[in-house]
Amino acid sequence: MTLFKKITGLGAASILALGLAACGSDNANSSGSGSDSVGKSVDYKITGIDPGAGIMQATEEAIKEYELDKWKLVSGSGAAMTASLKKAYDKKEPIIITGWNPHWMFSKYDLKYLDDPKGVYGGAEEIHSIGRLGLKDDHPEAYKVLQQFKWEDTDMGAVMVDIQDGEKPEVAAQNWINENEEKVAEWTNGVNKVDGDKLKLVYVAWDSTIASTNVMKLVLEDLGYNVSISQVEAGPMWTAVADGSADALLAGWLPVTHQTYAEKFEGKYEDIGVSMENVKIGLTVPAYMDIDSIEDLKE
Hints:
Elements: H1 28-31, H2 35-41, E1 45-47, H3 54-65, E2 72-74, H4 78-90, E3 97-101, H5 105-108, E4 111-113, E5 125-132, H6 135-138, H7 140-148, H8 153-164, H9 169-179, H10 181-187, E6 198-203, H11 207-222, E7 226-231, H12 234-242, E8 248-254, H13 259-264, E9 269-286
Parallel strand pairs: 1-2, 6-7, 6-8
Antiparallel strand pairs: 3-9, 4-9, 5-8, 5-9
Helix pairs in contact: 8-9, 8-11, 9-11
């Protein structure tokens, strides 16, 4: 999920001067009044991300639960999804995407989640740090850092916006660390330094996970670890931790987004702890669209 918050928007919005304002549209295609016109205006298409992401599985379930027989979910990359969003938003055209918080797009654009009365996308989610079995014994210092790793959407949002504005992920991560030494000190409290111990982190190409993985990489390296990071899709990410070929992942979105993987590999990994609470996934549209619920998509 850019593997995949019931926080309605990124707090980093205050640092982003983009001059974009939500406004009503006189274009009938943009207003999307009525389920039929909404469907026709977007060609009955929901713009998604990589097919292995949990949000894609949840959306397929939503299509079934809400009996959206004419609708189709189109897979792609997170970057392709946000590019489609930008293209539609700039022209005030309708679009329906798979969205999640935290994500920089909620700072840049005026967006809203569609109500989900059937609860297909679940309630508040959490982002968990997941480790391989034996990590605590092999690397107790790193394990303790991951266990104490907790931050807010505003923290992650600052890193994401920095990257979106053109900074390299490692530079954006270091900028945030430099400005948040007290918070980092909480993560490393009581942790001893090591001498070149190797660690491998895996992550999905979600903006949120790119941010957290690059920050944690630098924090662990400052403690003396030799950290490598590897980008994969959601399934291989969980597989790598479950089979021990990677040490940890920081993108365990539970209980809904990665439920399939958590259940598939149950007993083959350790849930180290929650790094962020009140995250959210769901169908998302620009605020200028005259639609409020997934049920409005059904004819």
